[in-house]
Amino acid sequence: IQLSGNSTFCEGDSLTLTVTAGYKQYIWQDGIGASTRTIKKPTIYSVYVKDNNDCISPVSSPVFVEVLSSPSKPVIIVSGPTTFCEGGKIKVASSSNFKGYLWTDSIKTKENTITKSGKYKLKVMGNTGCYSAWSIEVTVTVNPIPPKPAVVIGNNDSLKCNTKASRYKWFKNSFELSDTTLSIYSKNQRRIGICF
To answer: Which of 130, 112, 70 is nearest to 121 (CA)?
Structure first.
């Protein structure tokens, strides 16, 4: 019997067993089959063959297949809102301790600090050295911040913010004003108006 890989593998993986083709029948330890079979369960595999003359071969050497257990799909703990502005961050972490961790952005620690938009998933390694399936993904959206605005002098002694936005905060002599429109009237241009 030829093996496609190691006879010890992780749960969820598989192994292919192959016997020389061209015989009339392939009698495996669990019944008649084909010359090739895919293995996903642990057991002891052996086979003998019958040729076109109905002559039967000796039984092959046994193949001992061991399947190692994998940890359950991990749960991601999210520390805050998953949508935030550029310059912000969010921490995500595995809900439990494991031997190893692998995030989709290649981080290999239990906790991961996210600063970029993307879909993040986690898989974990158990004590057998096998990895779990990928976790449910967490989608993070990082919104760009508007460019730094400047205050320009408008008509009729008004001051205007030169950046278009949906909301404005104006400051006068370091004090926040309640005016949130694009233009603000100033009787004394020596006072400084700041918007952001």
So the answer is: 112
Residue 65 tokens read as 């297949």
Q: Count CB neighbours of 65 within 10 A.
A: 19
| 78-106 per-position pLDDT tens digit | 999 999 999 999 999 999 999 999 999 99
CB 9 within 8 A of CB 128: no
Which single residue is written with the structure tokens 């911040």?
145
* Dihedral of alpha carbons 4, 8, 13, 15, sign: positive
Output the pTM of the full model: 0.69
Percent of the chain with pLDDT over 90: 69
Cβ atoms within 10 A of the Cβ of 183, count? 15
- Residue 184 banded pLDDT, cuts 50, 70, 90: low
Chain CA centroid to CA 134, Å: 7
Q: What is the pLDDT of residues 32-56, one digit of tens each?
A: 889 999 999 999 999 999 999 999 9
Asked if residue 108 lies in contact with residue 124, where contact means CB atoms within 8 angstroms, the answer is no
| Beta strands at 138-143 and 170-172: parallel, antiparallel or unpaired | unpaired
User: Are 10 and 123 a contacting pair, CB within 8 Å?
Assistant: no
Say if residues 62 and 3 touch (Cβ distance below 8 Å). no
d(CA 191, CA 62): 91
